[in-house]
Design a protein that fits this description.
The chain is an alpha+beta fold. The chain has helices spanning 30-46, 65-71, 79-91, 173-177, 193-211, 260-269, and strands at 16-23, 51-53, 94-96, 100-103, 108-115, 121-126, 132-134, 139-141, 154-157, 160-164, 184-186, 214-217, 221-223, 229-231, 235-237, 243-246, 252-259. Strand 5 and strand 6 form a beta hairpin. Helix 1 packs parallel to helix 3. The relative contact order is 0.17.
Length: 278
């Protein structure tokens, strides 16, 4: 069946935005991962989503450096770029391409791309904070393969002002302040089971409360090659810190409505952003 095409119209701040988050269990096989994404994007578009989000490293998630390098694309071109652009245009949606590896100057970049309903790229963000964690059974050190981004990105769309971030960025609130009052923050992630169980919900709710915005955190879930385990629990948090919707630890699609008038009410009732002194 041909996926439902979403008619995009200008949405004033008082309107609602329907967003969908596609939770995945990616592995080291990019074509298979992209095929799964295509199915979930189609389901989300058929449900009326105007903004569809994918998780961090959606096209290839594994611990093998050789597989990561093989999946990395050159900036602006490659099958993953082409897939995202095509899906955005086919469904007439804003598509947040989670993140995937692209080749940088010396190492790889963990890059998030945002496409518009016409299939054109409208924003890109390279992960600034690189994950480092000494687990009991392994060391996670993204700096071995990746180089950090330098630029904070927030983009105005007809859906609202969308700020981009990735996973480990959630632990650094100063980044979100530099987004300058976004309406929506995207945080595609692949939290480990250990860190996710302890901190995932707390960090998401804190970033939403501090910035009085919606936080959309689309996650990887389950077990990946070589025993790597992701926390899952894709989640949407509103500007008051309330969890609007969440998944468990298995693949699926979370569809939610974001009420922009409610976000405005929160900022008017408690003008914390306007009252900042530092």
């Amino acid at each position: 069946m041909k996926p439902t095409r979403i008619k995009n119209v200008t949405l004033p701040a008082s309107k609602r935005v329907k967003a969908a988050l596609c939770q995945l269990n990616s592995d080291a096989n990019p074509p298979a991962n992209i095929a799964r994404c295509e199915q979930l994007i189609g389901d989300a578009a058929a449900a009326g989503a105007q903004l569809i989000c994918l998780p961090e490293l959606f096209n290839c998630l594994c611990t093998d450096p050789a597989a990561k390098l093989a999946a990395a694309e050159f900036p602006g071109r490659g099958p993953t770029h082409e897939f995202l652009a095509a899906q955005a245009a086919i469904h007439g949606i804003y598509l947040a391409g989670g993140s995937f590896a692209v080749r940088g100057r010396k190492k790889l970049r963990n890059r998030s791309l945002l496409y518009g309903p016409d299939g054109k790229l409208i924003a890109k963000y390279d992960k600034i904070h690189l994950f480092h964690f000494q687990a009991p059974d392994r060391l996670y050190d993204e700096s071995e393969l990746y180089e950090p981004g330098k630029q904070v990105i927030c983009h105005d769309t007809i859906l609202g002002k969308i700020g981009l971030s990735i996973c480990y960025d959630l632990r650094f609130p100063e980044l979100y302040r530099k987004l300058k009052s976004p309406d929506i923050v995207l945080a595609p992630s692949a939290f480990t089971r250990q860190t996710g169980k302890a901190h995932w919900e707390i960090l998401l709710r804190a970033r939403a409360i501090e910035n009085q915005c919606y936080v959309l955190a689309c996650a990887q879930c389950g077990e990946h090659p070589n025993g790597m385990r992701s926390w899952g629990h894709t989640m949407v948090v509103d500007p008051w810190g309330k969890i609007v919707g969440a998944l468990k630890n298995e693949p699926g699609v979370l569809v939610v409505e974001l009420d922009m008038s409610y976000k405005n009410d929160i900022r008017n009732q408690l003008p914390a952003l306007a009252n900042r002194m530092l």
